[in-house]
Task: inverse folding
């Protein structure tokens, strides 16, 4: 297959591309605007492969997207391009509306017209795989509840609302126009090459520098953690053998409170950096004012993808988090290139203590 991946320079997208190039015989066209979180260095190991191509394109620009389809003639679209940080969506929702909703609409329209021009064999094989999030479901009330593929949508933030909207658009284009779609909703990802505004890389890098480790509220928010390379395998499984029109939830079977995640990271850093002058790193934990509309608990029932497609995560949280910490310790150059002055200013502006002080 020739697979067009949108957002391929992002955290999950780059993991998908690395998996395809290193583990399959398929080729990839990476379509990415290269916003602040897009980083082509995350693709250095596959960038020179003859089966990889890159197009710097904004998915909201229809002319450019149509040209990419004409030039590369993809067999499959894996749509990962999205603004994804909840805090940023609260302070600046317009970008999320533009990329996540208008961008998805543009891509759907281009894909629809492209599909109509294919011969019968290629038309029957074409797939539009939309990658989404469990945050569209809102949060869970009972401690034993799980998100299933039938859970009603109740998004809480501008980010999750924009992703919910894009999910609805994709399904509408399937029902109205017959676009052969697949939808996946995943839990929180973690692993190598994660942009350091997200919880796990933020805690690791702050701890190494002796900076405060910000924990929202009491730190009792529960997330189901999914190692990004497990997610990449799941996405490829879905786009390869998933049933058209179906939704598949993808989770790591690793529910953890945020505070417990932070303590685990501190313990690993204490072990792996025994000469750090900031040990014990847990002494850097700082509780900050909770964000508006913060969902308390997410947890995914991933039994459908296991039952129907045979996917299960290979990493436990314990094995995956150790690999993640070790990767950040071993790759200071990548970290240094990602962390710009603008990023530091954003962290200072948004992660403050309950008293309002950095």
Result:
């Amino acid at each position: 297959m020739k697979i067009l991946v949108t957002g391929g320079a992002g955290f999950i997208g780059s993991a998908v591309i690395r998996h395809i190039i290193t583990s399959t015989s398929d080729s990839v066209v990476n379509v990415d605007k290269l916003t602040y979180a897009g980083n082509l260095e995350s693709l250095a190991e596959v960038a020179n492969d003859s089966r990889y191509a890159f197009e710097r394109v904004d998915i909201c620009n229809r002319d450019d997207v149509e040209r990419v389809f004409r030039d590369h003639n993809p067999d499959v679209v894996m749509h990962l391009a999205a603004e994804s940080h909840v805090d940023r969506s609260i302070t600046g929702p317009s970008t999320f509306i533009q990329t996540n909703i208008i961008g998805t609409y543009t891509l759907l329209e281009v894909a629809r017209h492209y599909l109509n021009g294919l011969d019968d064999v290629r038309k029957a094989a074409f797939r539009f795989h939309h990658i989404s999030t469990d945050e569209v479901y809102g949060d869970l009330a009972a401690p034993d509840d799980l998100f299933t593929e039938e859970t009603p949508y109740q998004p809480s933030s501008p980010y999750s609302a924009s992703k919910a909207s894009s999910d609805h658009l994709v399904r509408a284009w399937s029902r109205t126009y017959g676009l052969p779609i697949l939808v996946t909703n995943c839990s929180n990802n973690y692993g190598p090459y994660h942009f350091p505004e997200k919880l796990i890389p933020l805690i690791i890098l702050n701890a190494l520098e002796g900076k405060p480790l910000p924990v929202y509220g009491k730190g009792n928010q529960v997330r189901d953690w999914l190692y990004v390379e497990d997610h990449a395998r799941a996405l490829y499984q879905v786009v390869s053998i998933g049933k058209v029109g179906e939704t598949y939830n993808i989770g790591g079977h690793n529910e953890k409170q945020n505070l417990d995640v932070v303590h685990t990271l501190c313990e690993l850093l204490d072990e792996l950096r025994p000469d750090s002058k900031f040990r014990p790193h847990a002494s850097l934990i700082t509780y900050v004012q909770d964000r508006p509309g913060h969902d308390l608990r997410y947890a995914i029932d991933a039994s459908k993808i296991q039952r129907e497609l045979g996917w299960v995560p290979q990493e436990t949280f314990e094995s995956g988090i150790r690999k993640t910490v070790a990767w950040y310790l071993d790759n200071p150059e990548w970290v240094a290139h990602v962390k710009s002055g603008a990023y530091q200013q954003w962290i200072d502006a948004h992660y403050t203590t309950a008293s309002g002080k950095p």
